[in-house]
Amino acid sequence: MRTPGRVVLLVAVGTEPVLNPGAVAEAGRGTIDGVQALDLALLNPVPAALDGRLRAFGTVRGGAARFDPDVSPFAGLPLDPAPGDWADLAALCGPGREVAVVRAGDGPPAPPQGWVLERRFAGVQMDGAAVPGEPDDDAVELGLDDRAAMAELTERTRPGPWLPRTAELGRYLGIRHDGRLVAMAGERLRVPGATEISAVCTDPEFRGRGLARRLVNAVAAGITARAERPVLHASADNEDAIRLYRAMGFTVSTSMRFDLLRTPAERHVDAGAAALT
């Protein structure tokens, strides 16, 4: 999905208990108010990640958190955001910017006045607690010398947002054919106890050979070796991908929405900021 301006993916859930993201990060595998902290972190992974393992890759302002714009378009809010939280997010993103808002549920979010809902999109979160993974002898770890090839592959296959520093978020594996990178997968969002598998893509010429499945298994093997849970996200209408992941042992844990919004114009940002002072 290409849109003008700066795109930010917000992960938030409005139907769960409101918790400080730092409390979720510190709790790890424990419980908070009887709810598994890991499950809460997975429902709102951006604050949990940026308040913990990926702290160096983004910024937190009040209840809002966002990755550096050259790393990831993702941002997050408290699970039940107040107007001040929306104002913080608008300040982090800048005025008049497009924001892809991801949240659990069947309907789009209800942001304050000044925000504009421009596109609605449904997705799912999938849980890989039952996926042990399996190393693959043909899967090679990708490094700095592979960044151009990784960018070129994601540009052609569109597995999701890919920015100049996205590869710094975790470990990425690829499969080459005659020296050419033809498939890859890697790690993106990382919260205490779980890591998201992302950027799963295969060159169109090499699809149908099971490369995506092999790479997802190989990445999952590295995650489970750290005693963590593999998770991933998929478009709700991508039946082929969901079918593949189900066959591997992933289960759909949460219905998600990916809704494109535009942050308020400058005057609304100023008004929101003034309300906080």
From TrEMBL:
Keywords, in A-Z order: Acyltransferase, Transferase
Ranges of residues in domain N-acetyltransferase: 137-270
Source species, domain of life: Bacteria
Database matches in Pfam families: FR47
UniProt-listed Gene3D superfamilies: 3.40.630.30
InterPro entries: Acyl_CoA_acyltransferase, GCN5-like_dom, GNAT_dom, YpeA/RimI_acetyltransf
Xref: SUPFAM superfamilies: Acyl-CoA N-acyltransferases (Nat)
Name of the featured protein: Ribosomal protein S18 acetylase RimI-like enzyme
